[in-house]
Amino acid sequence: MAVNLKHLDLNLLVVFDVVYTTRNISRAANQLAMSQPAVSNALARLRELLGDPLFIRGRRGVEPTVKAHQMARTVRDALAMIGHELAPETLDLATYRRHFRIILPDVFEPILMPPLLREICARAPGVTVEALSVFRTDFQKEIREGKIDLACHVYPMAPAPDLVSEMLCDTDLVLLARRGHPRLGKGLDVAIFMALDFVVLVPELREVISASSDLTAQGVKRREVYTVNKLWAMPPIIERTDLVGIMPRWFHREMKKNFDLEAFDLPVKLANQHCSLTWLARNKTDPGHTWLREALSQAFRAHVNRTQAPLRKPGPRGRERRKHSALS
Known about the structure:
Layout: H1 10-22, H2 25-32, H3 36-50, E1 55-57, E2 62-64, H4 66-86, E3 98-103, H5 109-123, E4 127-132, H6 139-144, E5 150-153, E6 163-171, E7 173-178, H7 190-195, E8 197-201, H8 203-209, H9 211-217, E9 223-228, H10 234-240, E10 245-248, H11 249-255, E11 261-264, E12 273-280, H12 287-307
Parallel strand pairs: 3-4, 3-5, 8-9
Antiparallel strand pairs: 1-2, 5-12, 6-12, 7-10, 7-11
């Protein structure tokens, strides 16, 4: 059915876009600074105009119809184009209203979010952020569909013309153990490494980080005693047992504030980990999106600058334990 554009109020498309993103009438109303009845009324007008219900009730809000899914990207592209042409160059955070949906691994959340949340609470009362699970079947597809604004990830990605990736950091991996671990008093070589008991990440994350495949390629085995699905679960387990774990150097710098752990250079070479931000290319000049990306990048750079310090190399077996410790 053809739609007569002279009957189409642009505000209806704005409402549609926010409801599609939030999947919730109440949250959409809050983001749009409208009442719930006003949002419902706008949707009713758009439904009548398009001849489709657009959204149906779901368990936690509303779910888009096939028609809504089909038109969502076109609507978002059109609004972004109009906004880019008409919006002022400078962003007024005091009046800016937007709900961002981002993929954020749990390892990054306590690092990146506090500075951003302080900024939002102090200067951007109309901005809200929703962090989504890193376990997405195809987060690139969700970015392209406009369901996700930004992804912070360690997943390797093939170049794509419609996506932009910016590296947050490039870091190596270290071995973590509780201070005074009985098997690490005389240094760390391959034989000791293979005799240790490990806490490891679930297979989905192990594949991403590539440590397991690197070890296998070098013929180095490890005894995987316990599996966790969050990196933050590893430090307390390591501190309270004789299990050890492999994790990024910068993450250890953060953990040492709360856990009595020692870090050791690995006796085998593992590939560095690349942490990146990825977003849709058309959002590169979007003022709000640019502000979000820069805020997260600055938060991570500030963290790395605070915690960057050389890690001492463990000596050969037989030297004092203190010479093998990553940190005092």
